[in-house]
Write a structure and sequence with these properties.
heterodimer; A: mainly alpha; B: alpha/beta; four-stranded antiparallel β-sheet; 39% helix; globular
């Protein structure tokens, strides 16, 4: 924890050249954010579709209105699936990528080369990644919410399990904007974990290619567990 | 000039460097030689601050590097060029971007001036027409020359080379040695080369320091090394039959 704090203190120093930082930031937004759009779209679509089928097929009682399906899909996607499941997916995809990239730079002395050039390697390498994820991930999660709900709509329309008008009504029913704020707040915390934890494991890699692989695995496991713990704490703080 | 005073370093209770005192002279190629595991790379990393020594001081001219804060160290480091054993080129950048990198980070040059400097450095290490290639697309010898071009891009006062010939064929090794030697003279730099290549010692060793079991065992030059009566150094120098023949012919 102490070593992590020291690394973060070095990371959050003012970048040496803002122009270079901006260039790195744009690259990371493209790499970490836009590059993850495809997998997020696929996962979100099927999450929405599956929640729709499961909810519709489990409603036996005539007392429960059909629009409950749309309502359930919306609430599940906004409150939990989009922010948390997408964060866990990104912890695997982006986290392993960051840990192995920085770990390889460590074992091939590229980080030493940066230090010798008088560059704060932590700030140069890690700050753009953390900033990019914290900026772009909320948009990814909002896109995920929409795609998930669209997935549910297509299933409703395709299977006829519930009328699409009922599904739409359920999506709109008792909507509270705070749910989206809650999801975005969680996403910003998760974005930090997804990038900072793997950066830490990569930065302190010792050894060769085996150590890089081990760092990548540890980073994914650690960031996934931390996401789940923080998810619980934030839910307790924000919703209860 | 770089002066090292009483530097010691241990890892996990094992003494790697013991009370090292060395002065690297300006305008000369200072070679650190020794067997693998003798502590020569650790000594270099202690000198440039990549490893913190347990005790002792390092002076870059009149500045005591070991007592500087992070900001002051970074300023001194802008005067240091380093050629790493594995080159440490940035995979995601082209050759031109690699050499331009320290200029972009520290100089106030405009794009045109930086391009001119990059072209000059690449030409100086006899590399032209590779500006837009990536490190993975060129040979090991060429990568070494790119790393040297990057190391000299900022016109450093101090040049460190960690085993510059490792993994290179004998002909390319000679080219790299000659380049380092010429660049040292041209820019009046303090150059420190870590090596266990006796060809380099004989070719460019103006000052030679022999490290053995973490201690400075011997200090001299490429001429006196052949007539040394120091047993450990003699064992190291004359390990190869070529060196034995050279010694016999010189006698």
């Amino acid at each position: 924890m102490g070593q992590f704090s020291i690394l973060m203190a070095r990371t959050f120093k003012k970048p040496e050249k803002m122009k270079i930082f901006y260039r790195q930031l744009m690259f990371e937004i493209d790499s970490l954010g836009i590059g993850s759009l495809g997998i997020i779209a696929i996962i979100s679509f099927f999450m929405g579709a599956v929640i729709t089928i499961q909810t519709a097929s489990n409603i036996d009682s005539a007392l429960i209105p059909a629009y409950t399906v749309g309502f359930t899909v919306r609430q599940s996607m906004i409150l939990e699936f989009a922010p948390t499941i997408i964060a866990l997916i990104l912890a695997g995809k982006v986290g392993s990528n960051i840990a192995s990239e920085i770990g390889t730079m460590r074992v091939s002395e590229q980080i030493d080369a940066l230090e010798i050039m008088g560059i704060n390697s932590a700030s140069y390498l890690i700050l753009p990644k953390i900033t990019a994820a914290m900026l772009i991930n909320p948009f990814l999660v909002i896109i995920s919410m929409f795609i998930g709900m669209a997935g549910g709509y297509l299933v409703s329309w395709g299977t006829g399990m519930i009328p699409t008008s009922e599904y739409i009504y359920g999506l709109e029913y008792d909507f509270k904007v705070f749910s989206v704020y809650y999801a975005v707040i969680k996403t910003i915390f998760f974005a930090f974990i997804i990038t900072a934890v793997p950066s830490y494991y990569g930065y302190f890699t010792k050894g060769g290619s085996l150590a890089v692989g081990a760092a990548s695995t540890k980073a994914v496991v650690a960031s996934s567990i931390i996401i789940l713990i923080i998810n619980y704490i934030l839910t307790q703080l924000l919703l209860v | 000039m770089i002066k090292i005073e009483n530097v010691s370093k241990a890892f996990n209770g094992e003494q790697i460097l013991s009370d090292i005192n060395v002065t690297y002279e300006k305008g000369k190629t200072n070679l650190i030689i020794g067997a693998s595991g003798s502590g020569k790379s650790v000594l270099t990393k202690c000198t440039v601050g990549l490893i913190k020594p347990d005790s002792g001081k390092v002076f870059f001219d009149d500045r005591e590097f070991t007592s500087l804060n992070t900001q002051e160290r970074q300023e001194v480091r802008t005067e240091i060029g380093m050629l790493f054993q594995g080159n440490a080129l940035f995979d995601s950048l082209t050759i031109e971007q690699n050499v331009m990198f320290p200029l972009q980070m520290h100089s106030s040059m405009n794009a045109e001036e930086m391009k001119e400097r990059v072209d000059f450095c690449l030409k100086r290490v006899q590399l032209e027409g590779v500006n837009h290639k990536y490190p993975a697309e060129i040979s090991g010898g060429m990568q070494k020359r790119v790393a040297l071009a990057r190391a000299i891009a900022m016109k450093p006062k101090y040049l460190f080379c960690d085993e510059p010939n490792s993994g290179l064929d004998p002909q390319t090794s000679i080219v790299i040695d000659q380049l380092i030697s010429e660049i040292t003279k041209e820019n009046d730099m303090t150059t420190i080369i870590v090596t266990h290549d006796m060809n380099s010692v004989m070719e460019i060793g103006e000052k030679v320091i022999f490290i053995h079991k973490g201690k400075k065992w011997w200090e001299g030059d490429s001429e006196t090394i052949l007539t040394t009566d120091n047993q450990e150094l003699s064992d190291f120098v004359f390990a190869s039959s070529v060196m034995k023949r050279l010694a016999r012919s010189s006698k």
